[in-house]
Amino acid sequence: MSQTNQFALLKERRFAPFFNTQLLGAFNDNLFKNALVALLSFGALKLSADDAGSLIAMAAGLFILPFFLFSAFSGQIADKYEKSMLIRRIKLAEIGIMCLGAIAFWVGSVPMLMGILFLMGVQSAFFGPIKYGILPQHLHESELIGGNGLVELGTFMAILLGTILGTQLITKAPNGTVMLICITIIVVATIGYWSSRKIPAAPASDPSLKVRFNPATETWKLVTYTKKHRVIFQSILGISWFWFMGATYLAQFPIYARDILGGNGDVYTLLLAAFSIGIGSGSMLCERLSGGKVEIGLVPIGALGITLFGLDLFFATPAVPFGSELGLGGFLSQFAAWRVLIDVMLIGLFGGFYIVPLYALIQKSSAPDRLSRAISCNNVLNALFMVVSALIVGVLLKVGVAISTLFLSIAIANALVAAYIFRLVPEFLMRFLIWMLMHSAYKVNNVGLANIPEKGAAILACNHVSFVDALLVGGSCRRPVRFVMYYKIFQLPILNFIFRTAGAIPIAGRKENEAMYLSAFEKMHEVIRNEELLCIFPEGQITHDGKMNEFKPGIMQVLEKTPAPVIPIALQGLWGSLFSRKDGPAMKKMPKRLFAKIGLVVGQPIAAEDVTLSGLQNSVEKLRGQHL
Fold first, then answer.
1. Are 575 and 604 in contact (CB under 8 A)?
2. Which of 91, 99, 173, 305 could bridge 193 with an S-S bond, Cβ 3.0-4.6 Å?
3. Cβ distance 496 to 426 under 8 Å?
């Protein structure tokens, strides 16, 4: 999906009404929450600092509590029933809740406002599993990254606008502000319901599911079941860690802006805006950088960026404040302040790189009838990590740790947590190395990728030009590919890590190592029987002169026992690269060009019964000479 098409989703009925609905809901949540916080801190209630602080902490807890109580239940509901109907009912409930919230603001009842905040948390706990569960039902797999990026962009822009408006109305607007807030939250909820009526139907994933409400038992079962699925659970842990960091930064920005930078409330708003714009921009860039597929190679890039700019934020933090109660003009007139602002924005940007592919990976990897419950598990762990963040940060600040040191600790901890996750799930690091190769050494022009089926067994037959052919084919394909390769290439340093992680099949000549030869064919048959993609380089060796070698009969042996469609593929432009054998051994000469343009051309599938060795070689040869 191109960048243009990503924004085109905002004009399509299968996405736009849902996008508008979730954006309005996020805006209303943050308008109400921040108006309440501002009312407790600065408003007409005139509370003491201790009382206000205690009530703000209680408000945060009341909003998070429903995610522990209802996430397991809401995940079951989302899997059992049609999702657009559930969204409409949730939005109707929001109208009722906002009407009660307007009354609470009007009479200035703190207990009632707290109760409404709890109900908003309940509503969010029920909406969360549907929010991410409905996307794979309305979007193609190639649109998941772009769709998730738009959702994250909309969410953080709504958080930013809701925070600014909620805070400004209470602290700076004239009398009559409460009436304006009351009207706004009801109107926004009503528009959200109207938008939800246009969301297309999303059939129930598991209509036979027996729904059980037992918060402790069902939550434990939910987490235990999800933990069995390694990639999904580790992705959830990665997202939860992001929210641990995000909650830490967002919670400390007000004090950081006031006491460390010497700014007023507008400087805090500026930091929040920079962070939100960064996440939104990173979320949108994910689609462009991933080429329309779920590219988990961006996750390590995101983790690295968060750590680097988190470290720089520590060093950019001034030893003494820039001033006292500085406004935007005074703050931005300080040259050093721009470094702080850029660091905050880039932490957010790389956070977008980090979180969007993880959400898309959960959506892609989960069984359709379990997806909403996987999202519910994510919500439970997100809430848990945010609570733990609040407790740890509270203890550290209590013992005198400076906020800048806290930010330094988060950056270092992120590097350690990322290393741990990538060690548990090496696919992340493997895809990162492939992504780096395809976006530094080469610029790949893919033609005909749609000829590779989204499901079912198929054999890819490709010419063999360089030591990185498998990486380029695997990095371009939207499905995992199992490669057959000469064992000495399989054993190359660094590349061996990638090949092992991708499940490549090493092979030797029959006379060279008969046991490895026979084992390789057994594994090839197993791959086809498992409905996976198998890639074979029928030449059997990397070219020494840039011309294609004669195809060996091994591929025909595979087809005789396990027939499957064969898809010819040709790599163009690799001859003469660092990884080819032109002008001497590969990888032992200086690269002559970076960002070299190469082509990967995929032909039409050939039925197994129609495949001949000479015909297949001719097909690849024609694709190899095709002008791009």
1. no
2. 91
3. no
- Report the alpha-carbon distance of residue 595 to residue 98 in Å, rounded: 54
Cβ-Cβ contacts under 8 Å for 269 (sequence gap 6 or more): 163, 164, 167
**Structural domain includes residue 336:** yes
Residue type, 541: Q
User: SS3 for 598?
Assistant: strand
pLDDT tens per residue across span 100-125: 999 998 888 888 988 998 999 899 98
User: Tell me, what CATH number does 594's domain have?
Assistant: 3.40.1130.10
Q: Are residues 302 and 341 in the same domain?
A: yes
List Cα–Cα distances, 518 to 167, 507, 525, 625, in angstroms: 70, 9, 11, 34
Q: 47-81 pLDDT, tens per residue?
A: 554 555 556 667 777 888 888 888 888 888 988 89
3-state SS assignment for residue 312 = helix
CA-CA distance, 479 to 295, in Å (whole number)?
11
Q: Tell me, what DSSP letter sits at residue 587?
A: T
d(CA 224, CA 37): 36
Residues β-bridged to residue 570: 601
10-residue stretch averages of pLDDT, the chain, 628 residues long: 62 90 92 79 52 64 84 88 93 94 87 90 90 85 80 85 80 65 92 94 87 84 85 88 88 82 84 88 79 73 92 92 84 91 94 87 80 85 87 82 89 89 74 71 80 90 88 82 87 80 86 91 94 92 88 91 94 81 67 68 92 92 80
Domain CATH code at residue 113: 1.20.1250.20
3-state helix, strand, coil in the chain (%, to 5): 70, 5, 25
> Contacts by 519-523 with C-beta closer than 8 Å and gap 24+?
520/484, 521/554, 521/557, 521/558
- Measured CA to CA, the distance from residue 435 to residue 428 in angstroms comes to 10
Does any domain span residue 384? Answer: no
Beta bridge partners of 446: 600
DSSP state of 582: T
Q: Which of 183, 214, 245 is the last residue of a domain?
A: 214
Please, what is the Cα angle at 455 between 454 and 457, to 5 degrees? 120
Point out which residues pair with 602 in neighbouring strands.
569
Positive or negative: CA dihedral 212, 214, 220, 226: positive
Closest CA to 35 of 133, 90, 121, 102: 102
Distance CA 153, CA 352 (A): 9
Residue where a domain terminates, one of 214, 238, 267 = 214
What are the C-alpha distances in Å from 367 to residues 133, 229, 371, 424?
Answer: 11, 11, 6, 22
Sequence-ordered list of residues with C-beta below 8 angstroms from that of 504, at least 6 positions apart, any chain: 470, 482, 483, 484, 485, 490
How far apart CA 404 and CA 313 sit, in angstroms, is: 8
Question: Is residue 251 situated within a structural domain?
Answer: yes
Place of tokens 């600092």: 49
Please state the length of the chain.
628
Total of domains in the chain:
3
Amino acid symbol at 394: G
- Residue 499 DSSP symbol: H
User: Half-sphere exposure of 396 toward its Cβ, with a 13 Å CA cutoff?
Assistant: 18
**pTM of the full predicted structure?**
0.76
